[in-house]
Amino acid sequence: MNWLVIGIGDITSRRVIPAILREERSSLYAILTRYPEKVESYDALTFRDLDKALKDSRINAVYVASPVFLHAPQTMACLRSGRHVLCEKPMAMNYAEAKSMVEAARSAGRTLGVAYYRRTYPKVLRALELIEQGVIGRPVLAYITCHDWFTAKGGRRTWLLEPEKAGGGPLYDIGSHRIDLLNYFFGEPAMVRAVLSNAIHSSRVEDSATVVIEYKSKVRGIVDVRWHSRVPRDEFRIIGTEGELDLTPLNGPWLVSPAGREELPMDANVHFPCLKNFVASVLDGKPLLSSGETALWTDWVTQKALESANSGA
């Protein structure tokens, strides 16, 4: 599979491109960027214009890693040109854009994946098994947080503070991963309430968001994400009628349950299993862990959260 990678930022250089180079049926064929000097060390073609890149028939798949406001137009252009697409999160600026991306994939008969890579964590898959086995009884509450300090100091990733490019603050950036994970565990969301604020930073996007999601299964999920904490937090607990699963820290190997304490480390490159799953889906017809259809629900929750916060409900 010959890949075109759109964007050469931190995620692509540290994770996505190494994952493509490591995946045995993938090849880094081309990179689209406004900064060609950044790709001189790679054995790949360089493009500055997407339309020109898509005229190259040797490109089979595209990894879209541009700022969020470009996800929908770039993804749909690639799909309509006959390419499979793996898109960075969050999927789009809003739910309507996300639906358009899914429809474009369906119409083109191509695969659309979204890089919610935490679905591939071994301890996440093990937690799902334990829930299905009834180890904690019936799940009723999930609590998931991500707290850190972010101000784009030094000019790094400044676009994240521009709502017209990023959509929002931590709700979009780190919150989307956590919302997707709750959707993965508990299915279709039914109701959303949220509070967004600028408690510390006076940026144009929120510096904190608290979202409550009621699922059709009657599980209640709480997502709390912040860019104003000097104390990093990465908590994830699932409470059931007969016990609890503790996956804290989420980005660590440990899972604690009534069955005991297990060490289940993720891949050193967290993007690799996600990309490998995407390739297997395209080439072998294997189930896609994170598709446009599943990611659509995260955009639905995000939109409902914004509507709730803006209405004060």
Q: How would you portray this structure in words?
A:
This protein is 34% helix and 26% strand. It is of the alpha/beta class. The strands form three sheets. Strands 7, 8, 9, 10, 11, 12 and 13 form a seven-stranded mixed β-sheet that branches. The radius of gyration is 19 Å and the shape is globular.
State the gist of this model.
This protein has ten helices and 15 strands. It has helices at 10-22, 50-53, 71-80, 95-108, 122-132, 163-166, 170-173, 175-186, 271-284, 292-311; strands at residues 2-6, 27-32, 45-47, 61-64, 84-87, 112-114, 139-149, 189-197, 208-215, 220-226, 228-233, 236-240, 244-246, 254-257, 260-263.
Largest sheet: 7 strands, mixed
End-to-end Cα distance, whole Å, is 48 Å
Structural class: alpha/beta
The helix count comes to 10
User: What's the name of the CATH homologous superfamily of the largest domain?
Assistant: Dihydrodipicolinate Reductase, domain 2
CATH class descriptor name of the largest domain? Alpha Beta
- Can you tell me the CATH architecture of the largest domain? 2-Layer Sandwich
| Rounded radius of gyration (Å) | 19 Å
The overall strand count is 15
Shape: globular
Strand-residue fraction?
A: 25-35%
Give the low-pLDDT segments. none
Kindly report the average pLDDT value.
97
Number of domains: 2
- Might you state the CATH topology name of the largest domain? Dihydrodipicolinate Reductase, domain 2
